[in-house]
Amino acid sequence: MKNTIIIVLILLVLGFGGYVLTRPATPLMSDTDPTAQENKPVSEEVATTTDMTKEMVNGTERTVIGKSIEKRNITAYHYGTGTDEVLLVGGIHGGYSWNTSLVAFEAMKYLKANPTAIPSNVTVTVIPVLNPDGLAKVTGKEGEFVVSDITATQAVQASGRFNVNEVDLNRNFDCAWQATGMWQNKPVSAGSAVFSEPESMAVKAYIESTKPKAVIVWYSAAGGVYSSSCDNGVLPATKNLTDVFAKASGYPAHESFDFYETTGDMANWLAKVNIPAISVLLTNHTDTEWTKNKAGIEAVLKIFAK
C-alpha cells in the first residue's frame, strides 16, 4: 500500500511538471487589446521623421526637420562644416510669397558653388520652403521650381499663403500670439495655440536643437530689412545684423515693421529666445533680387568669421 501511494504521488508530480514545461506561454497583452496597441513601439517611419538625422544627397548634406500636414518634407540644407550656424529661411508664406523660396534656392546654389565664401567656423543652413503645401498649391511641384511654373491666379496665390489648416504660419509663433492675427486689413487664423501647426513646430524644434547664431527670414513685399523684437526691444546683435545686411544689400534698414500689427511672428519669437534675427522683405512678389541678397549674405557671414 505504501509503495502504491508513493508511485501515485510521483506520477502526479511528473504530470504537473510536464504541463508547466509544455503549455504555451500566456501573452501579457492580446493583439486586439487597445492598451497593447497604444504601447507598441514607434514605427520606423515616424522615428525617421522626428530624429532629424543628417544625410548626404547629391553632394549636399540635408536634414528632414519635419513634415507638413500633407506629409511633404520640410528640409534643411547645410553648407560648410563650422560649429556656428547661420540659418536662412524662405517660403513661410508658401505660394503667396513664392519668390522667397526662389531666393533661398539661389542661395543654396551659390553656397554649393562657392564653399570658400563660408568661414571655416560657420555652417550655413537653408530651409527654402517652410510651407510646402501652400507652395505646391501654386507651383504644382514638390520642391524646386521656376517662374514659368507659376500659372495660378492671384486668388489662388493668396490662398497659398496659408497651410492646409488655413493657418497663417507667421502668426503661429510665441510672441504676442493671438488666436486671430491680421494680414494687412484682413483677420487670419493663427492656429489653436502657439506652435499648433506641424510646420511651425518643425522649425521650432530644429532651432532649439541647433541654436543658430543668426537667422534671416525672407518675406515679400515691402523692400527692406526689419529687426526682430519681442517684449524687450531689439537685441544689440540684431541691430548690428540689420545694419550690416542693409548696408551691403542696399535695402533700407528698419527697427520694426509697423505697417500693421503682426502677432505670432517667427522672427520676433526668435528675439524672445535671444537669437538675433532679421526679416528681409523683397520689393515685390516676383523677383529674387539675388544680387542684393547675395551681398547681404556675404556681409553677414563676415561678421561670424573667426
From TrEMBL:
Listed InterPro entries: Peptidase_M14 (IPR000834)
Record keywords, A-Z: Hydrolase, Metalloprotease, Protease, Zinc
GO process annotations (BP): proteolysis
Classification via Pfam families: Peptidase_M14 (PF00246)
CC annotations in GO: extracellular space
Transmembrane portions of the chain: none
Cofactor(s) needed for function: Zn(2+)
GO molecular function per UniProt: metallocarboxypeptidase activity; zinc ion binding
PANTHER family: PROTEASE FAMILY M14 CARBOXYPEPTIDASE A,B, SLL0236 PROTEIN
Protein name: Peptidase M14 domain-containing protein
Species assigned in the record: Candidatus Taylorbacteria bacterium CG11_big_fil_rev_8_21_14_0_20_46_11
